[in-house]
Write a structure and sequence with these properties.
Length: 78
């Protein structure tokens, strides 16, 4: 999902703070899906955006970014 990212502590600014990649995301425009993961949680989260009328546009919450990481498995046997 990420080609380039900056780990925390590798780049120190003039203000003595760290520059680092806080989140990575991509959007599938064909399906209106937004995928992201954060520095604090490597689990990829998917958000679907339904069709909408531009007159009804409003701010949407994606939920808290600090979520519990879940280990998910799938059976390859049917």
């Amino acid at each position: 999902m990420e080609t380039v990212s900056i780990p925390k502590g590798v780049v120190i600014t003039a203000n003595q703070t760290s520059d680092y990649t806080q989140y990575t995301m991509f959007i599938n425009l064909a399906t209106r899906e937004y995928y992201f993961k954060t520095y604090w949680n490597n689990q990829i989260t998917r958000v679907e955006f339904p069709q909408y009328d531009e007159k009804d546009m409003k701010m949407l919450s994606l939920g808290p970014l600090n979520q519990t990481i879940e280990f998910k498995t799938r059976s390859i046997f049917l």
